[in-house]
Design brief:
195 residues; mainly alpha; Rna Polymerase Sigma Factor, Chain: A; 69% helix; disordered N terminus
Length: 195
């Protein structure tokens, strides 16, 4: 069942998008499988985008997204509704990304594994520029930018999701905008005056 859901294509006539409050009602009613299908439909692309922005690696982002969905499935009954559904989902995704990145950093590479590793598929050049620019940011700034600009969350939601004061989020976003403008200007992608 999980594999079927992971490859569910948006636009299927047999499935209708649900709001977070409708998904929470399904969970309260014990309709866990239906709630999970709705989460996959509504969040699978957002989960991948967050994972890609955090890891900078399409392959690792796919692993993180799949592990996030599997973890959500296993722990559907533990969601108590004390936070917004999206906050819970993003927190699970963020934690999976951090765990996978830590494992990767601590793993000793076997030379045979390095030679056998397949290169990740290339992203379009404008998107790869954005990914490279995001990777130049500190991890908290990168996460704040991803949530605020790519996921269109409010300052307050980003603050809650990241567990930091609102002022910290605003500072990180201000510094990140400046760093991104400098990064693009240094590479001639935008003129210095266009910042």
């Amino acid at each position: 069942m999980i594999a079927k859901l992971l490859w569910h294509l948006p636009g299927s006539e047999s499935f209708m998008a649900r709001t977070d409050s409708e998904i929470q009602q399904l969970l309260r009613a014990g309709r866990v499988e239906e709630a999970f299908e709705a989460i996959v439909y509504a969040y699978q692309h957002r989960i991948y985008r967050l994972a890609l922005a955090m890891t900078g690696d399409p392959g690792l982002a796919e692993d993180a997204a799949q592990e996030t969905l599997l973890r959500l499935w296993r722990h559907m009954g533990s969601f108590r509704g004390e936070s917004q559904l999206g906050t819970w989902i993003y927190t699970v995704c963020r934690n999976r990304c951090l765990t996978l990145m830590e494992r990767r950093a601590n793993r000793r590479e076997d030379p045979a594994d390095v030679l056998a590793a397949r290169p990740a598929p290339a992203a379009p050049s404008d998107y790869s520029d954005l990914l490279a620019a995001l990777q130049a940011l500190d991890a908290p700034q990168r996460e704040a930018v991803t949530l605020f600009y790519l996921e269109e969350q409010s300052y307050e939601d980003v603050s809650r999701h990241m567990g930091v004061p609102l002022g910290t989020v605003k500072t990180w976003l201000h510094r990140a905008r400046k760093a991104l403008a400098d990064w693009f200007a240094d590479r001639g992608i935008v003129e210095k005056g266009e910042r």
